[in-house]
Amino acid sequence: MDDAFFRRLVAAYEHDSRDDPARFARRTAAMAAFGYAAILAALAASTWGLVWGTRQLLHGRLAGWKVMLVLGCASLLFSLLRALWMRLEAPQGLPVTAQEAPRLFELIEKVRAKTGAPRPDRVLIDGELNAAVWQQPRLGLLGWHRNHLVLGLPLMMGLSTRQLGAVIAHEFGHLRGAHGKLGQWIYRTRRSWTLLALARERASLGGNVADIVLAFFFRHFFPRFNARAFVLSRQQEYEADRAAHRIVGTQAAGEGLQAIEVQARYLQEEFWPAVWRRAAGTPTPAAEQPYRVLREAMPASLAHAKASLWLADGLKRLADVDDTHPSLRDRLAFAELKPGVPRAAEVSAAEALLGSSLKDWIRRLDERWREDVARLWSERHRYANGQRHLIEELEKESATGAVDADDHLLWARAVRLLDGDAAGEVVLRRLVGERPDNLPGCYELGMLLIDEADAARSAEGAELLRRVAEAGNNPWAFSAAARRETWLERGERFDELKKWRELLKKRDAEATEAMQALHEFDDGAQHFEPAQLSRRVLRSLQDLLRGERAAGRAFVVGKSDAAAPDWRFCLVIVERAKGIGQPDAQSWWAELRERIELPCPFMVIDLAHPYWADKARKPLVEQMLAVPDAQVYAARR
Fold first, then answer.
1. pTM of the model
2. How do residues 526-576 score in pLDDT, each as one tens digit?
3. Cα–Cα dist 228/238, whole Å
4. Who's near 109: CB < 8 A, 6+ residues apart?
5. Which among 550, 526, 548, 545 has a CA at the least distance from the CA of 632?
6. Residue 416: strand, helix, or coil
């Protein structure tokens, strides 16, 4: 489904939901019932067609259309059964019992009783800054659930007992009474249709025949039901918040939300990067004890120099269609609370509820974390060694003259990864000093400086981002403009904001049009050209692909479009090696995308993906691969 179309549907249904929430919920429930009935009808029809067609063939009444009917019905029946059964894996975590943590279970039972939610069958503690009630259906769409309550130890370390109680009340609020049953039933129906859509997309044998049966539903019913279910889920987030407000109070609930926002940014930007930087100096994580450190670090993060900035960013973030949760600002408005970084609890929920056993839980999570990351840590250590070699190589080269701009950017990123932001800043300043018009260098230095507590350094970062945003339609212009807008708001520079927002709106429209054009391959003539990446950039890509057994050959080409006149955009095209145990064709490209480092925007194309494996796109693939010097990697046979 087209993302813009989905957004329009969501906007329209949100309006309907505000006008009459009860009526909207009834209509959505009716659509869920219709969708469920449609799946059952398709199941019955495919079963009948398979049985009838098989009997016809067994009695010697052969015909081509009967063979296609049998194949289509078998393919559809298999997909339907998979979608209906929908056996979800149990959540990961360490089980905790009432005997091990009596105070924790007292809190859980107290909150559960007040919400009227069913008792959790299991309570788990994991290492995330999160809490969730996870329903695991034993019979797919038919239900019969096991309820798991998952509590993150970092969450418990960072919140007070009342704040944690508000989080648990919110989660239980999703399960209470008719509200919970309707929401979960609609969720399961929506998920079944999603799984069915994925199964039909991957189907080959008999797929085209089978999909005729479901074409109407995928084209007309599912997009609208999906949008309605999304809006209802967001509506029910407010109902879950209401339950937390009633049981624990708006103050504790709102403070908890804001504490989580700040602590999430601290973990993402400060704590875990510092942990992983240490992989450069040691081949194993044997000496690491992250959760032991977090016991003190989580409460202290609320007094971090950037805490107010992190909260301001969170308040600025709008609700989007990739998350059913309302925005933080909307949730605080619903609680009728003014924003503000809360104080750290004198005694954390972890200390109050786990007591003397907290040390043991920390030890167990540290041990589990070391086991889980051992392979990735080793890979990061090897990667860091390569980056250290790159740094030394470029330092020597820079002593005799200017370094290639792309290589200089890689140099700065490598230094930031291994030695931190302060060391990376030195390299970025040298790049910008030698090449004042280098937009990616100005952008990365500006983004590094603009969040500084020192006003002069922050203003310098804002000035660099202004230069990038005003430099025209380029890949960094919109992001630079958006970040500078936040800086202007924070400094209450309202006289500049109005004009700057006009530029931001323009850059947003340009970036959207450019990205759509560069990712579009079905309409109009395509223009491909040599990527012109440096040998060091390509060497990094080649090193990564050598560790991927599924990669046979790789090509890198540039793509240009009139909608992106000042953009440099690359396509990394991977052809599979022959062999068993191949990664999933639907998702491998995304995994590679996260690990590839290029000095410009790019997309990864896995030629085994159904979209690219389609024979209709063979001429387009041949056009890309025919670009001069496109091939950059070939696996050893």
1. 0.81
2. 999 999 999 989 998 998 898 888 999 999 999 999 999 989 999 999 999
3. 16
4. 119
5. 545
6. helix
